[in-house]
Structure formats: structure tokens, C-alpha cells
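hey so i finally got around to running the thing on that chain from the lab meeting. sorry it took forever, my laptop kept dying and i had to restart like 3 times. anyway pasting the input first so we r on the same page abt which one it is
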Amino acid sequence: MPRQDTPGPARPGPSPTAVCVGESMAVLLPDRPGPLEAVENFRLSVGGAESNVAGALTALGVPTAWISRVGDDGFGRRLLAEVAARGVDVSAVAVDPHRPTGLYLKEVGGATGHHHDLGPGRSRLHYHRRGSAAAALSPAMLADPAAVRLLSGARLLHLSGITAALSDDCLALLRALLADRRPGRTVSFDLNWRPALWHDRDPAVLPPLLDAADLLLIGADEAEAAFGTGEPAALRRRFASPATLVVKDAARLVTALERDGTAVSEPALAVEVVEATGAGDAFAAGYLAGTVRGLDQRRRLRLGHLSAACALTAHGDQAELPPAAVVAALLDASPADWAATRVSVEGITGPAVPPDRSRDTRRARAQ
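ok and heres what got predicted. didnt touch it at all, straight out
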């Protein structure tokens, strides 16, 4: 008997500018460092690359929808409620009455002396997502009227390599979406290399997916692990079709390479890191928001860096940017003033930040 899926909560309004497709999961965060067997309590949260990008895009003023599947369970309801609370359109999220919402647990290393302690500064994610509702995403989604409405009006479609690893049906959906080329729509693809997801699947399916996108986002370290090189020029030769390839070199430098050989590099901001979770998704959202707005390449990279910096100085996956006047000043800053900018939990300081706005940056970061 086929599953009787039901749509997620409706959110009326015009079609959003951007659509993100992919799995999100419930997350259990430990109340203390140490191995899982020594943890007494966990805090429930939600996480997922594509919904993180959707939430950050919405916060950046780009109306965005997230399309996925969740289980008809408490985790699924919590996930839908939190993503919708960020202003994201979840009207095309299907609720599966038979498959569960995916779940992962975070293990944080410490100095407990326990034999299985990962050690200070180290962490590990434990996934329980096999057979999840999102693993049943398939090309059948493209016949759903709610999804059709969202996709038909989107100027930006964002995908990631995580989806390709979940199931054959998910892989088929990505191939169908990438094959559906539409005038006026940019398809972005973030590699999001997750080695644990590929243990029993063939990662050779990834390069054709990446090469079919208009805009490709890759971390240099993950490209080294997946393809044997993280060097921007070598990656540009390997993935020749996308109009733009963005290579993120951790906390140092990001380079955007156009198909015609033009390259623009921009250094990352100096950041007092609170938690690294979600920084890559925040960078993607900032860069994509700049793309939608028609900013030049350097300002797109800077908006990505600024969005990532704000995420790095906040707990959790989402963070707010400072007021528009501060953002504009930083995007227009000279290279020297950009390099002198510092981002911390207290706010943003530097010669490009208007003196009368320094308090505003602290207030925005505290919200």
C-alpha cells in the first residue's frame, strides 16, 4: 500500500525568490563534554544544511522556501515549527506517516579523563537517518502542486551533495532538478562532503551533479578529501561547466572563479569564534543573497564572509547580521579597512564601521 503523504503547514503569499531542497533533522546536544555514555541530559534542536541556508537567506531579506519530508512525529513537528518561525515557507514539506524524521547526536570532547573522551576541541556527529522520511524524496516531488508552485517562481534553487548520498531516489531527484534548466533561474550546488554518508554509496555520482550547476560552492578541505585537490585553478579545470566556482579555504580566503578565467579572492574577517556549527551554510546564504541582489563578485564574497562571521560568534546554526548601514559600510570598505575589521560576540569593530553604529552591532548580535 503506498504511503499517504500529507503536506506540511501552509504559508500563504507569493512565490519565494529562492528554494532550498534537502533533509533536515532533529539534533540532540549534550549538556556537558565527554563521551555519550557519560552525558546525563541532551537539549533538543534542529539542523540541516539546506534549511540553515533557507533560514539565513530569509534573514538576509531573500524570501525563501524549504522543500523536504519529515516524519509524522514530534521531531518532525518541532523541525517544521522552528524552520517556519525563521520566516521560511514550508508549504511544500511533506509529512510522511510511516517514515521517521532523521536524528543526530553531537558528542563533544573535553578533559574528563574518560577512556572514550574525544579530547578538548574535538567533536563527532552520530547520525540516525537511514530510512528517514527525507530519504524518500524522489522525482515524484516534482508532480506535487505545492512544490511546482514554489519551483516555477524561484530565481534561485539551492541543492547540496548531502541529498545525493541519502538514497537512489534522492539522487534521481537531484538529477531531475539539475536537468530542468529554466531561463532566469540560477541553480547553486554546495558539495557539503560528508564522508560518513558515502561508506556504502559510490561518490563517483557527485562530479556530474556538481558540473551541472550554474554556481558551485566547494570547501578546499572537502574537495581535497573527495577529489584529491583543493586548489582553486585545478577545481575550475575539473568543473568547467558552472558559470562560477567558489572555493572556500577555511577561515583564510575564498576565491570565486568565472568560466572565462576571471578570479576574485577575498580574505575572511578576523573572528572570535564561539561555535563553528553553521558557518559554511551562513557563508553560502550570504554569497547567494549577494548574487540575487546583483552585487559584484567582491561584495558577494564579503557578504558571505560577514554572514559566516556572525554565525561563528553565536551559539547554534543561525545568527543575525548587523544593521543595513553597517553591512553596506563593510561591503564598500577599502581592503585595508576590511582587513582591520574584527567580529566578536560583543559586536563588530573596525575603521569601516560608523562610530555611531558600534552600539547597534552589539545590540543586533545579542538579539
